[in-house]
Write a structure and sequence with these properties.
3 helices, mainly alpha
Length: 85
């Protein structure tokens, strides 16, 4: 959640910067330099957070992957004796 919340927040903020008061998409010429700088920072942050989130998911998959069991013959008499003890 620590990575998802900023991604959602920043993407909503960037979307807001690209829409005019009437709710229509701004033309490129209507976006001021300050908003362009904010959009660039937001996109870089979204990119970094997304990469970190992707790395976390990959690492989690590795950690949570159940290995294929190695089956070996077992002496049933010994096993039952250990269980009884």
């Amino acid at each position: 959640m620590n990575s998802i919340t900023p991604i959602l927040s920043l993407s909503e903020s960037v979307s807001g910067l690209l829409v005019n008061k009437e709710g229509k998409t701004k033309l490129v010429t209507d976006i001021n330099n300050e908003d362009l700088d904010d959009i660039q920072v937001a996109l870089k942050t979204i990119n970094n957070r997304s990469k970190s989130l992707l790395k976390f998911v990959k690492d989690y998959r590795k950690m949570s992957k159940i290995p294929v069991p190695e089956l070996n013959p077992v002496n049933l008499n010994e096993l039952i004796s250990r269980i009884i003890k």
